[in-house]
Amino acid sequence: MPKITAPTVKEHREAVLNKLVDAAEAILRGDGSTQLTAGAVTAQAGIARNSIYRYVDSVDDLRGLVLKRYMPRWQAAVDAELEGVEDPRERVLAWVRANLRQASINGHGWMMQVAQSQRPYRTIDVGDPQKETQDFLTERLAALVPEMPIKAELIRAVVEAGFRSLDAGATFEDVSHWAEVAVGALLDDHSDLAASA
């Protein structure tokens, strides 16, 4: 049995897995010069390379575990900002603002590059890192703007442009202001929203 550095085997496993996820996140947040490989992760975590597969089946599992740290919190924060907002138009604007706020807090570009082979702005299912990815932006937005698929696509495009601006160094205040101006213009004729409320 391998030497453990915690009171129980379970706590040891949790500590090592946490080190691996920390290492994977550091690499994913980096400048792109280091690839997320078993060797890079174990070197950063300070464990033997062949030990990684005692904790995860593949390096891709680590991508999901990194996202699992952020996505539930992100989604809960967005839901909290929508709570109590009854007006359909204001709910969409609150959704835009809340997602931009989370991107400004957590960073966005690095997180959305985690699933490199997937469509942009899709994330690994945070309940099970091995499941197929889901598009959390589209899923949430579709519920806010039903029966208006073109408006939903345009609103999402505005939010994604906001994410890129935040990644490039723009302030949350500026990005949020102009995103709300753009989305507000899209929703000026909001009879569809009123009808669906």
Written description of the protein model:
The chain has helices spanning 9-29, 38-45, 59-82, 88-106, 109-112, 136-144, 149-167, 172-186, 191-196; strands at 123-124, 133-134. It is an all-alpha fold. Strands 1-2 form a two-stranded antiparallel ribbon. Strand 1 and strand 2 (133-134) form a beta hairpin. Helix 4 (88-106) packs parallel to helix 7 and helix 4 (88-106) runs antiparallel to helix 8 (172-186). It is elongated, with a radius of gyration of 20 Å.
What structural class do helix, strand and pairing data support?
Answer: mainly alpha
The coarse overall form would be elongated
- Strand coverage percent: under 5%
Q: Quick check: average pLDDT? A: 79
Task: Calculate the terminal CA-CA distance, rounded to whole Å.
Answer: 61 Å
What percent of the residues sit in helical stretches (DSSP H or I)? 55-70%
The gyration radius over C-alpha positions equals: 20 Å
> What count of helical segments does DSSP give?
9
Largest sheet: 2 strands, antiparallel
List the helices and strands in order: HHHHHEEHHHH
**Side-by-side strand order of the widest sheet:** 1-2
Tell how many strands the DSSP assignment holds: 2
Uncertain spans: 115-126, 128-134
Multimerization state? single chain
SSE layout and pairing:
Layout: H1 9-29, H2 38-45, H3 59-82, H4 88-106, H5 109-112, E1 123-124, E2 133-134, H6 136-144, H7 149-167, H8 172-186, H9 191-196
Antiparallel strand pairs: 1-2
Helix pairs in contact: 1-2, 1-3, 3-4, 4-7, 4-8, 6-7, 7-8
